[in-house]
Backbone:
């Protein structure tokens, strides 16, 4: 199967580009520009996309693109440059770049000047999404101008001898009206790539691959209760047999209400024979006493989780079980946020899932490492996992500990757990739970004056965050009905002791992350 390789120059939309390509039923992978060493299996590459990036063109990136073009021209592999990638492509082919003279941000009108397969069945004038300060001032020799913006900026060009196309705008962003059609035209009419990526139907293939790799011994899996870890565990169970999989649920005391019981039931129904619940809530709470720094909380939880898990794995091995594999529910975005795959951007968080790799000497198995969240949900549905789990909102590995800003105490956990439950209940009541990416409450380390009954109160505040996203790499605050926010606020201040104020977070990602910590 030919893949589309998205070369990531550190832009915020690299994963969105890859995601869009997959939506169009072609397989895509991210290649961090800084990691390209020239040793690709070019026989597997059907097209190259050069992503956007935060910088002006530099010699290092130009050298990289020159090396890529040497291969693509020789092999007749089409290249599409987007935004920064568009500028890089033009510069490497001999064009000139104007630095910071024609800035365009947000919605912009462009006019298509020439008929071309890239713009087939697309109106001559259309709205696209721009986000650039530099621009292409003059085209390289042999290139043809395809489109201009209303401000006179080169919006698109083609260079036929190198099978290269550039677009200054972002076709992957929804604000570009015909963006998906442009990408489809590139994949179909220019790259001639067949539609052969249907992730929801990949369950049988994943099972077959696991069966080939896991030829002896037994597997142990850390199950959190979310769709990722459950799906990974059940796929493994189908590959090597339910009696050879040991599913371990570490109850840290930081999970959502009813999560442990729901996970147990789903595993049992799927045929997993060995299910263990380790109640470590008191231990975790004692280790978090006095800790306020978010990375310290993450590190402590990860280390204690790993220790509890490793101790139990050792006990199983001592009892005669032949453990060889560690199953993890890592998905594609996890790897970028942990610095394992993906971009020129800084490492964001020491992701809880990835730290689990340090557990023991077991061979790591990640059945879902190449899939995005919605793709995992499709696989989960095919496996018969309950819809209540399939549609469950993402939940951070460290749990409610990072939805409490400041020290994690039993009282704070009770407040955070109740507030989060109210947010989820009301989203369901308003029919919005499955329409938004994530909705939750965060306990803030601030107090404010209020009035309850006839008395003055001085109590904590809660922030409510509801976001819309497609892959968690970018997110936008959801414009939920005012009536919903009123209901959530009323319930929280009346039902959660010690709370007298509710705030709504309207920050996008970036600059903020989805979770507060």
Residues:
């Amino acid at each position: 199967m030919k893949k589309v390789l998205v070369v990531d120059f550190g832009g915020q939309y690299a994963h969105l580009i890859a995601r869009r390509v997959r939506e169009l039923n072609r397989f895509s992978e991210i290649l961090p520009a800084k990691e390209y060493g020239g040793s690709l299996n070019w026989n597997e590459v059907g097209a190259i996309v050069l992503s956007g990036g935060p910088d002006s063109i530099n010699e290092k990136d130009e050298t990289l693109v020159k090396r890529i073009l040497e291969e693509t021209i020789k092999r007749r592999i089409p290249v599409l440059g987007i935004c920064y990638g568009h500028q890089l492509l033009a510069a490497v082919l001999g064009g000139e770049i104007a630095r910071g003279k024609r800035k365009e941000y947000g919605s912009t009108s462009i006019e298509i000047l020439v008929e071309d397969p890239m713009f087939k069945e697309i109106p001559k004038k259309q709205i696209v999404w721009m986000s650039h300060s530099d621009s292409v001032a003059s085209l390289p020799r042999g290139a043809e101008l395809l489109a201009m913006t209303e401000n006179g900026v080169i919006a698109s060009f083609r260079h036929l001898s190198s099978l290269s196309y550039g677009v200054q705008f972002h076709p992957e962003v929804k604000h570009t009206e015909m963006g998906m059609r442009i990408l489809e035209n590139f994949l179909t009419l220019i790259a001639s790539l067949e539609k052969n990526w249907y992730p929801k139907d990949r369950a049988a293939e994943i099972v077959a691959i696991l069966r080939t790799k896991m030829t002896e011994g037994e597997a142990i899996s850390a199950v959190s209760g979310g769709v990722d870890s459950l799906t990974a565990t059940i796929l493994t169970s189908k590959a090597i047999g339910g009696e050879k999989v040991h599913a371990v649920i570490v109850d840290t005391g930081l999970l959502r209400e009813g999560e442990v019981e729901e996970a147990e039931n789903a595993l049992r129904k799927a045929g997993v024979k060995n299910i263990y619940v380790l109640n470590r809530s008191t231990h975790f709470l004692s280790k978090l006493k006095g800790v306020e720094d978010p990375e310290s909380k993450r590190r402590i939880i990860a280390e204690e989780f790993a220790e509890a898990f490793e101790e139990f794995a050792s006990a199983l091995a001592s009892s005669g079980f032949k453990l060889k594999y560690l199953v993890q529910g890592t998905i594609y975005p996890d790897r970028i946020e942990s610095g394992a795959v993906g971009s020129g951007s800084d490492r964001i968080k020491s992701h809880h899932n990835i730290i689990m790799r340090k557990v023991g000497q077991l061979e790591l198995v990640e059945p879902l490492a190449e899939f995005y969240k919605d793709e995992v949900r499709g696989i989960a549905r095919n496996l018969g996992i309950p819809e209540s789990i399939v549609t469950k909102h993402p939940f951070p590995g460290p749990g409610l500990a990072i939805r409490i800003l400041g020290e994690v105490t039993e009282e704070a956990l009770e407040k955070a757990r109740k507030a989060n439950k109210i947010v989820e209940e009301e989203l369901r009541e308003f029919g919005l739970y499955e329409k938004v990416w994530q909705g939750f409450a965060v306990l803030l380390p601030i107090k404010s004056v209020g009035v309850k009954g006839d008395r003055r109160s001085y109590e904590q505040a809660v922030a409510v965050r509801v976001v819309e996203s497609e892959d968690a790499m970018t997110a936008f605050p959801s414009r939920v009905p005012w009536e919903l926010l009123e209901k959530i606020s009323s319930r929280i201040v009346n039902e959660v002791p010690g709370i007298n104020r509710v705030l709504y977070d309207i920050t996008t990602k970036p600059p903020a992350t989805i979770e507060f910590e």
